[in-house]
Amino acid sequence: MIKHILSETTFKKGITVPSLLFILSVTFLASFFPERANAVLALVQDWIFTNLNWAYVWSVTLFVFFLLALVFSKFGSIRLGDNDAEPEYSFFSWLSMLFAAGMGIGLMYFSVSEPISHYSDPTFQDLNQIQRSKNAQLFTFFHWGIHAWAIYGVVGLSLAYFAFRYKLPLSLRSCFYPILKERINGPAGDAIDTFALCSTFFGITTTLGFGVVQLNAGLVEVGFLKSTTFSSQVVIVTIIMAISIFSATTGVSKGVKFLSQLNISGAVLLMLFVLAFGPTAFLLGSLSEGVGEYLNQFLSLTFNTHAYEPESQRWYFRWTILYWAWWISWAPYVGLFIAGISKGRSIREFICAVLVLPTAFNFLWMTVFGNSAIWLDQNQAEGLLSGLSGRADELLFRFLDYFPAPSLSSFLAIFIIFIFFVTSADSGIFVINSIASNNAEKSPKWQLIGWGALLALLALVLLNAGGLQSLQTMTLITALPFAVVMILFCYSLVQALIIDSYYYEREFSPATSNWSGERWKERLQKILSVRSKDYVNRYIMDTVVPALEELTSELNTKGIHAITELKSDPTDIALTIRHKEIEDFVYGVRSQNRPISNILVKERNVPNVKGVERYIPVSYFGDNRPGYNIEYFTKNEIIADVLKQYERFLELTSEVKNEIFTDTGSKRKG
To answer: Which is nearest to 258 in space by CA: 428, 22, 125, 96?
Structure first.
């Protein structure tokens, strides 16, 4: 029975086996030696954050400006799929899913605690109350704004492009295709996907573990549970993962889609409740000011490393750099998920939606909750909320105590947190299985159940042993090498987009411009043949040379001094009309070799393809413009082509504004 089940698996051994070995080994060390492991990893993290923080800053900055450049480039109209591909999901469903998977649970956890933490941090104690309030909003916007989503966007866009445009598997290895070619299917590709699987697994595990603590605290706050115990956490994890597994096994288009829409609807309802019963006018006004300050300080915040402000660097490492590392470490998971639901979108639509819309919602959300908390702390709570800044798991529920019907709003918050966890977990299960199976079209349900059970089990083991902090720290450390991987993604994507544009914008051969279809059988034979060096040399001697010599003779009879020169026998021939005051007119033809794609060499239904290169006769001109292939031109067509170029030359030379290019007499005199 077991043998039969295993025979149906879609797991790729080169990915799954090393991933499981690494995951279990790290879990063992973090569980049995939590203090020692955390101490060592914390030292490594501190060294990286202190000495290489600039690397995080420049990497994230590159991602932001890279995506913005694509939006305004000609590549923005390229679709993530075939040219006629249509989106699989409605805009609302798509936005709900990418948002819920991206950082939904984080918004619940940090919506009150982060602004309050910045507001009450001793680093800014010398500032007045108003400035500390503004800084709290500004820094929160910075950490949850465009920069965070640019990290996800780079990975998601690269994956979606290569998967849906190039028809490659939806896996990180595919993003290296322009660099590695077919080698992505070997050990190098397995290593890349193994890294992605481990990073995704650890990110979800730590989030699940820490999030359960917040859910437990919330249930205690509303009186549903008496205290925070490990047994209650076991029950919470079991319920979450059971629903997540059920959702994952029903597929993205059903379970994940439904829960994401339910989640975002509940979150909006809670936000509107706080906005309506909080200091509404102040919140809307501070939102406007906050957005303006964010835009005004955008470049300063982006490049600032606090090198001249050592007193604030510890805060900077603890918040900004940690956030950049955390978003990068989550990028494989979130990128894979949003790529999988983005087929049919254009690059411009994808980037604008991923960067702008979630950022705008985050700004509204953080303003409503964060600024409400600061306002309450100043006017009603008398500093009590600031005093709880180190207890993020309780702070949201203590904050809701200052609003009408606190039990009802707390239950709604718990429900939203619960659903956010389920959507993160079910999309995580889906992504992990996709990586482990190299994006197999249909995997048996027991694989999804197995990943969900393993996530739950290891989260509880680490939670009980106190090893979650070690796992989180190691995940943050791995973010730096993955930032380098993401930079290579950008390079690969640019190379692919250039080829994409060239492929679809490539015009017909000049030889087809005025072709009537005469002697089509001869033309077909040439099309089906790959020309050798000897063939092209014969073509130049038998067709090109007679054409240029006949035209040269005719020009001389008209009083135009022209010569035909064979520059290197017999691969380079040129007709030249020499001038004194203007540039010479040159029309030449030379033999060039071009490599042949291995795919074409292997294709049996393309006759006469031998070897790995071909030769073609290419024209060239005196002004160094790019030439073109003339291999299909007859003798008379070559003469017509030269006259066309000569007519162009005379037209340009006759225009006064072109004298800077055509006047050579003044250059010689100077």
So the answer is: 96
Closest CA to 241 of 198, 197, 196, 207: 207
Identify each DSSP E strand in 480-580 by its residue range: 562-568, 572-577
Amino acid letter for position 218: G
Q: Is the pLDDT of residue 49 over 80?
A: yes
Q: How far is CA 168 from CA 148, 159, 160, 177, 519, in A?
A: 27, 9, 10, 9, 41
Neighbour order of strands in the sheet with 613-621: 562-568, 572-577, 585-595, 613-621
8 Å CB contact between 187 and 453: no
pLDDT at residue 512 in the model:
65
Q: Which residue in the block uniquely carries the two structure tokens 């429900």?
A: 415
How far is the C-alpha of 270 from the C-alpha of 264, rounded, in Å?
10
Domain presence at residue 200: yes
Domain that holds residue 583: 520-669
pLDDT band at 468 (very low <50, low <70, confident <90, very high): low
With helix as H, strand as E and coil as C, how does 231-294 read?
A: HHHHHHHHHHHHHHHHHHHHCHHHHHHHHHHHHHHHHHHHHHHHHHHCCHHHHHHHHHHHHHHH
Ordered alpha helix ranges (H), 437-519: 445-465, 468-477, 479-505
How far is residue 579's CA from residue 560's CA, in Å, rounded to a whole number? 10
Residue located via tokens 């030696």: 33
At 263 the pLDDT is: 74
Tokens of residue 27, six digits? 């879990």
Residue 510 lies in a domain: no
Q: Examine residue 511 and state whether it is found in any structural domain, yes or no.
A: no
| Residues 571 and 638 both lie in one domain | yes
| β-strand pairing of 572-577 with 562-568 | antiparallel
Per-residue pLDDT at 606: 66
Domain boundary among 447, 473, 501: 501
Give me the percent of the chain exceeding a pLDDT of 90.
30
Same domain flag for 538 and 490: no
In the chain, the number of structural domains is 2
Whether residue 423 is found in the same domain as residue 525 = no
Round to whole Å and give the CA distance between 22 and 485: 20
Cα distance between residue 302 and residue 205, in whole Å: 30
The 10 Å CB-count burial string (b at 16+, else e) for 479-516 is bbebbebbbebbebbbebbeebeeeeeeeeebbeeebe
Both 496 and 525 in a single domain?
no
